[in-house]
Amino acid sequence: MPRISVTVDGIRYDEEVEPRLLLVHLLRDRLGKTGTPIGCDTSNCGACTVLLDGRSAKSCSVLAVQADGCDIVTIEGLSTGGTWHPMQRAFHEEHALQCGYCTPGMIMAAIDLLHDDPDPSEESVREGLEGNLCRCTGYCTIVRAVRRGAREMSQKQEGAATS
Amino acid sequence: MTEQLDAGVAARQIKESDVLSGAGDGREVGRARRRKEDARLVTGRTQWTDNIQLPGLLHVAFLRSPMAHARITRVDTSVARTQPGVVAVFSGQDFAAEQGSLPCAWPVTEDIVLPDHPPMAVTEVRYVGEAVACVVATDRYKAADALDAIEVDYEPLDAVTDMTAALEEGSPKVHEAGNKAFTWKFAQGDIDAAFRDAAVRIDRTYVQQRLIPSAMEPRAVVAQTDGDSFTLHSSTQIPHILRVMLALTTGIPEHKLRVVAPDVGGGFGSKLQVTAEEVLCLLITRRLGKPVKWTESRSEGNLTVHHGRDQLQRISVAADADGRIRGVKVDLLAGMGAYLMLVTPGVPLLGAFMYSGIYKMDAYDFTCTGVFTTKMPTDAYRGAGRPEATFAIERIVDELAAELGMDPIELRRRNWIQHAEFPYTTVCGLTYDSGNYEAATDRALALFGYDKLRAEQADRRERDDPVQLGIGVSTYTEMCGLAPSRVLGSLSYGAGGWEHAGVRVLPTGKVEVVTGTSPHGQGHETAWSQIVADALGVPFEDVAVIHGDTSSSHKGMDTYGSRSLVVGGVAVVQACEKVKEKARQVAAHLMEASPDDIEFTRGEFRVRGTGTSRTIQEIALATFAAHDLPDGFEPRLDAEATFDPDNFSFPHGTHLCAVEVDTETGATKIRSYVAVDDVGSVVNPLIVEGQVHGGIAQGIAQALFEEAVHDADGNLLTTTMADYLLPSAADLPDYTTDRTETPATTNPLGVKGVGEAGTIASTPAVVNAIVDALRPHGVHDVPMPCTPERVWRVLDQARTTAQSTDGGL
Fold first, then answer.
1. CATH class for domain B384-480+647-805?
2. Domain ranges across chain B
3. What is the ipTM metric for this complex?
4. Do residues B132 and B194 make contact, with C-beta atoms less than 8 angstroms apart?
5. Terminal Cα-to-Cα distance of chain B (whole angstroms)
6. Which residues in chain B are contacts of A17 at CB distance < 8 A?
7. Which one, of A121, A117, A118, lies nearest residue A143 by Cα?
8. How close B11 gets to chain A, by Cα (Å)?
9. pLDDT tens digit string along B675-692?
10. Which domains does chain A possess?
């Protein structure tokens, strides 16, 4: 079996995996990273989205062997020193989740969206999150949360730049 | 948006001040509290059923029928048993003696056909996806691999997918007893008289397409046993009902069976079920003595999670020339699918009493025939019967307005129950306790900019603009708070509709609330904390809510039908009252006063007219110590309450939708959507807004996007999320929402329920808007979902008809 080395939420794992093993199953079933859920089998829902070398990827459509050598951040690795990421806070503040099943993927996709567009319009958020489905919220509060998270992230960066 | 600003009114926005102070009176109820549940959900520290790992856990995979209707002539599992990692392989025959029949708790008539429903098919399959065998293996990949090695021979039988065809003589039979499950009738007033001399009569047929509920979390089950008792974790809305039903189905004594609903990722009715997989996982763990897990894939779920809607509605309305509605007749075919599941036959009955909507009329006549087809069974889906009823009445009222040349709002005003007329007993026999349709409608019209949009519509029509504007109205009410047990009994439902709560004040003054409701996204932990904080005068943060586990929450009727707050929340209030009375006894004793002289304000018991007081926390500690309590007083500051409501609750509201329909492409764009809902008193406006938003989205999805499509052989064609179109953020508009508050008079909280309101209201609002846009083109209906292709075809047909009528061909 191929041997891979991945870093997940700051910890390095060396694992022997079947070539067909999906990254999401490696995370959930082997590494116990159950914060990343699975919502579909056709990569439509985006619930399993993680950051793979800094960019969002649907971990149900990546083989574990493809992630060899990669740095992976899941929803569980977003908080630092017990402090939530601004996007986690924004989702909480704007009531952008109900059952919360899509939330990890939604937050990871939103963070990636801001890479390309740090101050997205409502329309940009809606189009940018097209690959992430939510059945509970009707999306308005998610859109508000992403824009709020964007503002807080840019303020944080400005704060860091001026200090 | 521009129109709304021009109207000089702003929708209610939740402000930071709402969070900090709510109504400004120090009460928790009414505050837009951020949810307690979020902390684990935004950080990934969740407990979904599929997360569970146990030593020696085995994985189950099901082999499912590829045929809609067939006789099973042979199942050979011998090769599969030899595959790597395979522990066991079972066919239906292996379970035949012990699997029983999946329960139907709502046999709506005495002569209903209740077919045997084996969890795993033994001799015949009746829908694509029905389980015929299963593999138990050491991991989920190996279990799936071994399915390929099972051989099944089928002898095909004819499928029947269309309800009307199913009722015809000579149709293939789904069951020996025939394809008619039941006919249920209900009549009030003299319907013949209402229709005989009415000036206007309109007849319409509407199709409520089949929907796939699509909760984001796929179903999952983990079953385990210590050899004596059993524990079942399931992604379910109904741990309590499930425990009773599984005990009855499997023969495992109820006290030896614990059911747990851990974090549950949405339900919308789809997890209000006793599923084949839950029964089978229990049987497998009983057989093997080992823990097993089954998690469905999405495509498996689309096939085998019960579907929703699937009704053919023939509706007629009779009215006077001035628009006064005389009567409504409904003849309904309700698709059951292949079997009757937990509440399958009862779903259309939940709508039976709602076809009169908010309107007064003299007579009403309702007939519903339940029909078997070779498809996945239907059952509850958000609104369950009420969206269908509301759609039909709100659509046909718009048709009546068009026929009479009246504004649809004006026609509604002439017919609806006036605010001063409440409480009002409708033609269907329900007593609506409170409501204010005038206030909600006036508010919605102002926010929407109704007159200005009508002017723009007239202008576009005048210019023959290829993009036409349509305005859709939906003035809905619904029946929530399921349900008074006596009413359920009179409708042949197998259980009651009460709800249970326990409240215990711990020695340190912190409070634990045990609720029989089972939340899966609704925010009960937050809302119940607010209620208890007010009732006992303790900090919001000091309250914890326990739910979803029959070992810690022993009694409950669970969460569905917008019942949790209206029934379960009231039970919490009643339990708090009992606790407070106990505390009052202790307080009086400690302060050497009469209990009658003790006032309670915000957590403090004070001897009236003195400065002497004790906090509830002090009393909790004193009760725990039990050194100095009244004679005969049990040293406990806890209480339980079971609340059985006397009546349903009736939220209502006015939803207005403006669409732009491109008459050349058929594409529909929602330009603005305004919802003013009256859900009675509000515990947490943030949660209410969220429920309304999500509900609207699901209703819009039925109007525009979603449909479970089968081919003539009964194969589901929409098995994936690529084929079954759940709307994304890019497909939906922003909503303008606001509320009016007319408290319910039937419960101490004044609450009415909100979980289903948006879904019930929005579907007719959207379709009415589309039809309104196209009416000048001769269109009076577009079947759902109103996809661009369907809109275009309807338009094309209307143009062709117009040309042939004009002799233009």
1. alpha beta
2. 49-157+219-295, 384-480+647-805, 498-643
3. 0.97
4. no
5. 44
6. none
7. A121
8. 15
9. 999 999 999 999 999 999
10. 3-77 (3.10.20.30), 86-162 (1.10.150.120)
